[in-house]
Amino acid sequence: MSAAIRESCDLAVIGAGPAGLAAAATAARLGLDTVLFDEQPAPGGQIYRAITETPLSERGVLGEDYWHGGALLEPFFQSGAQYVPGATVWSVTREGEIGVSVAGAARLLQARHVILATGALERPFPIPGWTLPGVMTCGAAQILLKSSGLVAAGQVVLAGSGPLLWLIAAQYLRAGGEIAALLDTTPSANWSAALPHLPGFLASSYLAKGMKLVREVKRRVKVIAHVASLAAIGGDRVEEVAYRVFGGSETRMPVDTLLLHQGVVPNINLSTAIGCAHGWDPAQLCFTPVSDEWGMSSLDGIAIAGDGAGISGALAAEHRGRLAGLDAARRLGRIGDDARDRAATPHRTALARAERGRRFLDRLYRPAEAFRLPAPETLACRCEEVTAQQVQEAVALGVQGPNQLKSFLRCGMGPCQGRLCGLTVTELIAKARGVPPGAVGYYRLRPPVKPITLAELASLPRGEAAEKAVVRG
Amino acid sequence: MFRRAKEAGTARVSLSVDGRPIAAEAGDSVAAALLAAGITACRTTPVSGAPRAPYCMMGVCFECLVTIDGIGSRQACLTPVRDGMRIETQQGRREAGR
Amino acid sequence: MSERRDYDVAVIGGGLVGSAIGWGLARLGQRVAVLDEGDVAYRASRGNFALVWVQSKGLGMPEYAAWTRRSSDGWAGFAETIKAETGLDPAFGRPGGFTLCLSGAEFEARALTMKRLHNQSRMVDVPYEMMERPALEKMLPMIGPEVVGGSYCPLDGHCNSLRLLRALHTGMERQGAQYLPSHIVETIEPRGGEFHLVTTGGSVTAGKVVLAAGNGNARLGSMVGLDVPVRPQRGQIVVTERARPFLPYPVVTIRQTDEGTVMLGDSLEEAGWDDRVGSGVTSVIASRAIRMFPILKSLNVVRTWAALRVMTQDGFPIYEQSAECPGAFVATCHSGVTLAANHGLVVAPMIKAGRLDGELDVFSARRFDVPKS
Questions:
Q1: Residue C83 CA from chain centroid, whole number
Q2: CA–CA gap between residue C163 and residue A408 (Å, rounded)
Q3: How far is it, in rounded angstroms, from Cα A274 to Cα A266?
Q4: H or E element: which one contains C240?
Q5: CA distance linking residue A109 with residue A117, whole number of Å
Q6: What string of DSSP letters covers C243-271?
Q7: Using the beta-carbon criterion (under 8 Å), do C301 and A444 form an inter-chain contact?
Q8: CA distance A234 to A225
Q9: Chain B partners of C300 at a C-beta cutoff of 8 Å?
Q10: DSSP conformational letter for C232
């Protein structure tokens, strides 16, 4: 499917989820020489994962919102953009040089403009025992379902908070899976806090869809609300989940598979490594890249579209992708300002509609601090096995932020590069210092944002200056 | 513990895990195949030797590292199965040269 | 918020130099403040290679070879002390180390450099051996076919430098030093036999001040009558995933850490204040490393780093006390790991006594004033 990667292009889009597909299609149709890179073997990103290949062809199982993703494919494949699946982008410079690896071979590509569409990942959920085999994210279960038609067998418990929790539970049940319990960690106080945003929610499509899903799940699954603490217990794998309802005592349940979810956050590893500015979003409790209404980041020539720019959901992602694609065409001189703005109008309207109701959801499903700040003995960093207590002790020693923490404790030095510990570490430091997370900052990252072999790195082109800098007498 | 709610209807694929044969379907990732075969842990960590298994299935957690056809530290969730693949669980640190 | 504090010594800089000196002073009973920047700062100490290296030091200044050898000889005891005080092990090892050559020309050049180094009058005894391939293979059986030989010095070693930094911070806190992060020094005013520091975290007053702020020393030096001509010089490092132990000796550009990761270096780049990595240099580093040890080629790179060394014109340290402002000192170098033992155990007592010993005169910045003949 993929022809040889060229040495240069007008536009490189990274990520074949809704934002990336829409951005690439829009830009390519306007005449930009466009390449879309994606790590997976098939398009769709995570939300539309396996949409071309899922064994779950009966549409009612995954639901119409999923199948909507199919509408993005043909415009993309007809647009003239080059699609490179199985491509791991491990580096992007602010000058638009892309380092990418396909089938174990690394190469560089020069783009005049870049759109990052790497989407979101699950918020870390650091409960005691979260590293035990048998504990996974709800997203992981959803991927296994979509890609391979697999459901967890035996005692399956879902735990956490957020709309995706209910969606996944419903999809599971429709596919013939069984769920022993759903432990809802949504704090009851969130309801009243979310009320001011209710009008937008009532006017959105989320209300009807959401209520339908919740009813569907509650009919068949024991739902325990106001769960205030959770722990996965076991030796070599998870055997029980212990939980406590707010004000109650601990209950234990046997479990074979524990699926966790407390929302998604932008995947900022690439945007951080490039050097884009990021800010702390106090509503969504995560770092998001600074970007304008077209998705342009703080660095000229690097734009960000979709959930990677801020969590707004799959529909908003595709509209933002189109806006970024239009802006790319304008910046590279294919269309003028007026043409761009005119073409953008319907997408802006659709975007506003897609974002309606999200502020209510954000506030309602804001994860409790107890689940964002782990207990002392719980691992904050999975890769390097660093506990929350160790982080707190380092702050007591005077460590101000995650970068100094990294050099003292190795958090963030493992292969995941902070994807599963960054937010936890920042919030732990912020809490210990008594300052907002925005004042603490995030890990400073550098390429490769995904591992490549030394052989691949060694194979890249380099100039004489680089040789001279290294080889001395 | 995972079971097929729906068969893919694609070709059956045979792989081995630490020498033991398992079956998978074309289109599975190695991680999915391991989970479908009831394999609990795919590695032990290089820090403490604790058992780990796939966690995110989307390539960001790096828990699913296994040795595939003699090459270590491969992300099982990003690698499609192939007939005859040799998978080995990765015990602790990777061996340089494999 | 303004706070007045009283200290015997204010050390400016919490990197390897500042924390070693701060620790050394604190355990001598001095009331010490170590001032540091915030989380994001240039921090050469975060980017170093962790070698405790002797073999090629001192070409142009044999006193530096002696100073280096002294620190290397004292390092084991220093590490034991730190470990006993803090429970943190700097993981020091001195198995001897290598510089490897990938061509006859490299070998000849290396042999010549070593010969010139050792031919200097006043050069101290530092054992070394130029080894051709057969002898090298006995010690490093896994070297690649392109390695023609190298230089070996039994006094070379390495440690875990990040753990060392953490241990020094832990140790100095236990010894009663006050660590003041986010206290960037804006001005130093010598006043009435004391030093009044205005910082972003408040005011600090101390009887003595030690400039250990790396490349920041150039700006601060002029406030206390010290000329500190240092400049940033970039170096890049590539780090692999953890691997089972296979490399028992450090090589000057390749070493396996106690955690199993393999560190590969390095570069010398005049890049100003740009501490970003670039794929050209990291590619060359990777390429040379694989040529030296083909076994490395399929290991995954999990991290690259760049840091700015603190570099003088001749590459040697600056230790000096201010004539104009007695009680102001500067200690700066690019070998903060190798010299940590000296800084903590030799320089700190000198600062407490208020005078750098004569043996350090050679490291004064006044050496740069000498007109070249």
A1: 20
A2: 6
A3: 15
A4: strand C231-242
A5: 17
A6: B-----S-BTTEEE-TTSEEEE----B--
A7: no
A8: 24
A9: 73
A10: E
Amino acid identity for residue A235 in this structure = G
Q: CB distance from C34 to chain B under 8 Å?
A: no
The residues in A 112-171 lying below 8 A from B, measured between CB atoms, are: 121-122, 131-137, 139-140, 143-145, 147-154
Entry pTM: 0.95
Beta bridge partners of C197: C188, C204
List the Cα angle A452/A456/A459 in 5-degree steps: 150
- Find the residue in C nearest to A400 (Cα): C39
The Cα of C34 is separated from the nearest Cα of chain A by a number of Å equal to: 11
The vertex-B51 CA angle with B48 and B53, nearest 5°, equals: 130
Residue A345 token pair: 């109008």
Handedness of CA C7, C11, C13, C18 (dihedral sign): negative
pLDDT at position A202: 87
pLDDT in tens, chain C (373 residues): 445 558 999 999 999 999 999 999 999 999 999 999 999 899 899 888 999 999 999 999 999 999 999 999 999 999 999 999 999 999 999 999 999 999 999 999 999 999 999 999 999 999 999 999 999 999 999 999 999 999 999 999 999 999 999 999 999 999 999 999 999 999 999 998 999 999 999 999 999 999 999 999 999 999 999 999 999 999 999 999 999 999 999 999 999 999 999 999 989 999 999 999 987 999 999 999 999 999 999 999 999 999 999 999 999 999 999 999 999 999 999 999 999 999 999 999 999 999 999 999 999 999 999 775 5
- Which residue in chain A is spatially nearest to C181 when comparing CA positions? A398
Q: Which of residues 69-98 of B touch A (CB under 8 A)?
A: 73, 77-78, 80
Chains near A (3 or more Cβ pairs under 8 Å): B, C
The answer to whether ipTM exceeds 0.95 is yes
CA distances from A302 to A66, A83, A289, A446 (A): 29, 19, 11, 16
Contact between chains at B25 and A148 (C-beta distance less than 8 A): yes
Listed residue (A402, A411, A385, A294) closest to A347, CA to CA: A294
CB atoms closer than 10 angstroms to residue A459? 16
Positions of E strands within A174-226:
181-184, 222-224
Please tell me the distance from the alpha carbon of residue A435 to that of residue C357, in angstroms, as a whole number: 45
What's the CA gap between C262 and C228, in Å, rounded?
35
Angstrom distance (rounded) from CA A397 to CA A322: 48
Contacts of C262 in chain B (CB under 8 A): 96
Structural element, H or E, at residue A28: helix A18-29
Distances (CA, A) of A380 to A72, A272, A468, C162, C317: 38, 21, 42, 20, 40
Q: Which of C183, C190, C201, C220 is nearest to C14 (CA)?
A: C183
Least CB–CB distance from C40: residue in A399, A403, A460: A403
Q: What's the pLDDT tens digit per position in A101-152?
A: 998 899 999 999 999 999 999 999 999 999 999 999 999 999 999 999 999 9
Q: pLDDT digit string (tens) for A379-425? A: 999 999 999 999 999 999 999 999 999 999 999 999 999 999 999 99
Q: Which residues from C are below 8 Å from B95, CB to CB?
A: 243-244
